[in-house]
Amino acid sequence: MEQYLNLSAIKLENTYATLPEAFYTKQYPSKVPSPKLVIWNNLLGEELGENLDFLKQKQGIEILAGNRIVEGTTPIAQAYAGHQFGHFTMLGDGRAVLLGEYVTGKGERFDIQLKGSGRTPYSRGGDGKAALGPMLREYIISEAMNALGIPTTRSLAVLMTGEGVVREAVLPGAILVRIAKSHIRVGTFEYANQFRNKEELKALADYTWNRHFKENQEQEQPYVSLLQEVVKRQAKLIAQWQLVGFIHGVMNTDNMAISGETIDYGPCAFMNRYDPDTVFSSIDMSGRYSYQNQPKMASWDLARFAESLLPLLADTGEEAIKIVQEEIDKFPEIYHAFWLEGMREKLGLFHLVDGDNALIEELLRIMFECHADYTNTFRDLTLGVKSSSQFADSEAFEQWYQLWQKRRENQQESLEESKALMESKNPTVIPRNESVEDALKQAVENQDYSAVESLVSLLRNPFDYSNREVFYEMPSDFSDCGYKTYCGT
Ligand code: AMP
Ligand code: MG
User: Which ligand lies nearest to the CA atom of residue 123 in the structure?
Assistant: First the structure.
């Protein structure tokens, strides 16, 4: 079969390949025996533009599976490094190929990446493949995150490759078609600074600025601005995670996207019972990436980003270090402001007043003490359901509730407006671990994708307070004890 496909329907660019060659390797995806499209994300397809619809057809599937290449495109694997659990390593796309960049009718540029598409020069000992379960998991969770209003990479499609991948057992192989604003990571900058020269680092920084931050004014100190913007986007992103109880699980610097999107859904999961120490990942023995550590770890990762920029920040090393210190020191405050604003809204409060921080902290303390479910607590407060079993007999909760009510009544806005604000911020549904596992089991064992699809359609309306059935679906596994997630390798 002819490998190249001459298509007028889709035009893919690859501006990334204009960077110095050290940043990538030209790489075709591996061919797979019998590709089958099992998930097509209609919603995302429509958002990107109708001309992508042909990808659902026979020829399109050959492209998504990596069996054929659109003529005139340059698929690449990207080079990057990263600190994994604190240790610096050379990495790179070991099981992914960037097909190219798709530009929408509105002029927005997105990477189309195949994840699980075979070995590359960066594969180290790995097989370059992915199993169906983890790829479907990424589809489910990333759709949920998007619906919750949290920046994230998306999943356009999942394909079965028709071959088995060897893990602890032989599992059905799959490819995830990932859409991202870009795949530039903190680790990409670490790679440039550690292994390349200043010109190449500068080329990466300039490219990144133009791709993601161009809308900002021309800056006098463009690289300091780059650092500031990345810090701000991450602070906001992590605050958004905390506000919905999302635990990423593996916040290594290679898994932090410069664009500010959530990326690399491995052992992530949503917290049920409120416990700041919650960890799901089987490999996170020390709790490095626990719920409460996420802001600290983001700041740690950003310090690695800042260090990578040192040669560009100032004329002297001393000056540059001073800038890094100053900018990284600002993170806790910027993060806290985003978090506080989000929590204020979750409690139906329109403006911050003295004492709000303490009011929030007290609620969290009581939630922890009462083993309360994080999502359901805020949902019940929204609904005005006070007598929830979670807080039965809690004197402290009763007192807190009265204080909160007074605080709500004393604001200018009505209680109806306050409730509407809460409804727009407190989800009624999140991807509960058990529902996700059940849906994946049905898909992987029986090739029945209906549970995945119905879960995703539920998760796409997380703020729908008219769906009564969903409200009272308490997690049957009320605690998170013993629930373990694994990296999708
Ligand atoms: P991740 O845990 O998915 O963020 O991946 C960390 C690094 O390991 C990245 O460089 C991946 O490309 C690489 N990697 C993960 N799984 C595989 C695999 N099956 N084969 C080759 N490389 C892999
Ligand atoms: Mg990764």
Answer: 1
